[in-house]
Give the backbone structure.
Amino acid sequence: MQVDDLLVSVVMPVYNTARFLPETIESILNQTHRNIEFFVIDDASPDDSWEVIEAYARKDSRMVAIRNELNVGVIRTRNKGVERASGKYVALMDGDDVAMPERISRQVAFLENNPGHGACGSNIYEIDAQGRLRRTVSFPAGDAEIKRSFFFHTPIRHSTLMVRKECFDRLGLYRVMPEELDLLMRIGRAYQIANLQECLVKYRVHGDNYIFNDHRAIIRSTLRTRRNAVKAYGYRMPALGYPAYAATWLMQFLPPRTVFRLFYLLRRLLVR
């Protein structure tokens, strides 16, 4: 089978992002890799997200619209799509970001050529609510650097993540917050992980990002996940992981926008 013929399942949970959805949905439907099934799951959004999703689903049969009657949260919503996925690869996406046209094709080609890798991400363009470029953000490239980074930051931006479907079949679905970090830790026990060193997604930063709405809960769950990496998954915390842990714990008492800025500073200081 040719690479272009491989089916890729794209899974995108949505909550209250109607104003960004047309650009996000079109960025997936217009991928150069055409053979996709696109699961868009609305988590009972109070805005017009469902109407936008339905309109696009009527126009393109590759898109499957699913709606939760009650808000159940991002983990259960994302898992609904993963459970339905029948592709060899699962590409994850969020409802306010934008995929570059060759995102899927680049990642499929990489995973096809690197059978020992269970997942890959990429670098990102960070944009604001209006789509203006804020900066380019690079992530660690290789397996060893990515796994070391588990103790400092999440080394793959979720909207750039592509996972072999067999990883979900073998290791289970999303479990706990932060869901991508816990998933990567489990994948890393059995597979290698990489980040393509090119920007394949525009990651949107705006006032409704979840880190700005509940940063204390996110920080606490991140610290639990890092402890679990040592106790349950057998990772070894590097020496600088201990001051990073303490610094992250202190961040829960700071305003969320300050935390967002400190995140990048801490990353530059501690990740080498």
